[in-house]
Amino acid sequence: MGYFDALSSASFKTSHDGRRLFFPWGVLGRGYVIEYEQDAKRIEQEIKIFMNVALILIIGFGEVGSYLQSFVVAALLTGVYTVRA
User: Fold this and answer.
1) How confident is the model at residue 1 (pLDDT cuts 50, 70, 90)?
2) What are the distances in angstroms from CA 45 to CA 14, 49, 61, 72?
3) pLDDT at residue 33, as a whole number
4) What's the pTM value of the predicted model, to 2 decimals?
5) N or C: which end of the chain has fewer CB within 10 A?
């Protein structure tokens, strides 16, 4: 299991009755029931892709531009995650 696999799978739990639960904000927010396993896998894959792209963009803007640009990109990506979650 890779780094991003562990990060994305931490957002998912299985309830005592076997249902998959998704917590987009971890312990800070409420969870959602995922009805179908293929939906859970799709969401988990989207989270992994988003984290990879976000990491590359934030580090890239920090290296090429200024740290302020990196913070702006991080804020925009947080907004995108908020809308998608």
Assistant:
1) low
2) 17, 6, 24, 25
3) 92
4) 0.75
5) N
